[in-house]
Specification:
Strand content: under 5%
Mean pLDDT: 87
Number of helices: 5
Order of helices and strands: HHHHH
Low-confidence stretches: none
Distance between the termini: 15 Å
Structural class: mainly alpha
Oligomer: single chain
Shape: globular
């Protein structure tokens, strides 16, 4: 098994962490006794994070593009959720939204410039299919 280059660890770890956070927050917020469907939904959301992480780990170029689009979408969305929660908007935000926002926004702000960099362009060159 070949060693992954240094620049692959952080983006892959970010998406694995996001998937684990999805599951952990779903378990935390799920009504007691735990039921199947909320956990199933959380696992479904987490699988998407894990697939992107696996693609980044294998240095697939399409996964780098997906990660960049994800970061572009997450920053304004979760930043708006944080702003509304901070201003005490007239509706209740679940703790999972706030915690996800606090994890996603700064991480994506740091990750996006790296994913756009020339160094990342050199690392993530594998096509989706084939070698």
């Amino acid at each position: 098994m070949e060693r992954a280059p240094r620049g692959v660890w952080v983006p892959a770890a970010f998406f694995v962490g996001g998937g684990l956070l999805e599951v952990a927050l779903a378990v935390y917020e799920a009504p007691r006794p735990l039921s199947f469907w909320p956990l199933w939904e959380a696992l479904g959301r987490a699988v998407l994070h894990f697939l992107v992480a696996a693609g980044l780990w294998r240095r697939i170029a399409l996964c780098r593009s997906i990660a960049m689009v994800y970061c572009l979408a997450v920053v304004p969305t979760y930043a708006a959720a944080l702003a509304l929660a901070w201003m005490q908007a007239p509706f209740r935000f679940p703790p999972s939204i706030v915690v996800q926002s606090l994890y996603q926004v700064p991480s994506c702000l740091l990750l996006f410039p790296y994913l756009r960099s020339a160094e990342a362009s050199v690392l993530f060159t594998r096509p989706l299919l084939g070698r």
